[in-house]
Write a structure and sequence with these properties.
By secondary structure, the chain is an alpha+beta fold. The chain is built from three helices and seven strands, in the order αββββαβαββ.
């Protein structure tokens, strides 16, 4: 089954790839890997902002991470022309705008991680970092970047 068919089966529609907010490109493909710049969470066209442990719930943070994952997929599809060119998800890096007492960054990052497994199956299982940070660009609640192995 193609990844496009899998997305349709899951009822997933990818968003339009977001334009960079500074001096970088969304995706660089080198050495058989697609390095995708950090993506912010847009749900219904609105940026999810705030801080986990203060004004953003764990549930909303997890949904924000999933939204970041959808944007990662949109960016890699735009760069490669098809998600079928993805061999596997290698690594995700999740950055969670967190209050000092918030320690559930891994649970938040699961929003993006579980999406990758839903879409790519075993090839979606990946290495990951999930870190708390005091602030993110534009006040975003979560940012996720990725590395994908690309089929030769």
């Amino acid at each position: 089954m193609s990844i496009e068919a899998k997305l349709a089966e899951l009822g997933i529609t990818l968003p339009e790839p977001a334009a960079p907010v500074a001096a970088y490109v969304p995706v660089v493909v080198a050495g058989g890997l697609a390095h995708v710049s950090g993506q912010l969470p847009f749900i219904d066209g609105k940026l999810v902002t705030g801080r986990l442990g203060e004004d953003v719930s764990l549930e909303d943070g997890t949904a924000a991470a999933r939204a970041c994952g959808l944007m990662l997929l949109a960016q890699v599809k735009a760069a490669l022309g098809s998600l079928d060119k993805v061999e596997r998800v290698v690594k995700l890096g999740a950055f969670v705008n967190s209050a000092g007492s918030f320690t559930d960054q891994p649970k938040v990052a699961n929003g993006a991680s579980e999406l990758m497994v839903e879409v790519f199956g075993d090839a979606g299982r990946h290495a990951r970092s999930a870190v708390g940070v005091p602030v993110l660009p534009l006040g975003a609640a979560v940012e996720v970047d990725a590395i994908f192995a690309v089929k030769g």
